[in-house]
Write a structure and sequence with these properties.
By secondary structure, the chain is an alpha+beta fold. It has a single domain, classed as Lipocalin, CATH 2.40.128.280. Helices cover 20% and strands 51% of the residues. The chain has an eight-stranded antiparallel barrel with strand order 1-3-4-5-6-7-8-9.
């Protein structure tokens, strides 16, 4: 009887342990607001402001990644105080790729460097973008 009781308790403990989500440290690190900082030309190593890819349409871009795998991309219109917001989903496809879903399309970007406060992603073979995590006050 004691053996059956021990087996039942062990089975319950194992099942409950598989239901607990301890979180993915990489995903936990991504949660928050990230501001586009600069663009890096991979061929020349030259750094430039984000205007290089925004074509004068916006002066600031932020992405807020949420724990429920959604995100909001906010673009501050140049010469304005009005943000345009776009919503979508995000996921890590593996340890090297961050994918975002917006306008019925998944876009995958290779992660080149990822720390607690900076994210460097390849936008295309010649260009990478550096995002800096905003501090929470």
């Amino acid at each position: 009887m004691k053996t059956i009781f021990t087996l039942i308790i062990s089975a319950i403990l194992m099942m409950s342990a598989t239901l607990v989500n301890f979180g993915d440290p990489k995903e936990d690190k991504l949660i928050g607001v990230w501001k586009w900082s600069k663009v890096i030309n991979k061929t020349t190593g030259e750094e430039s402001g984000i205007d290089a890819i925004l074509m004068g349409m916006a002066s600031e871009v932020k992405m807020e990644f949420k724990a429920d795998h959604t995100y909001i991309e906010s673009k501050l219109r140049k010469g304005s105080t009005i943000y345009s917001n776009y919503q979508g989903q995000w996921k890590f496809e593996n340890d090297e790729t961050l994918s975002t879903y917006q306008k019925e399309k998944w876009t995958s970007n290779k992660i080149e460097k990822f720390t607690a406060d900076s994210l460097l992603m390849q936008m295309n073979p010649q260009m990478s973008i550096l995002m800096i995590k905003e501090k929470i006050n």
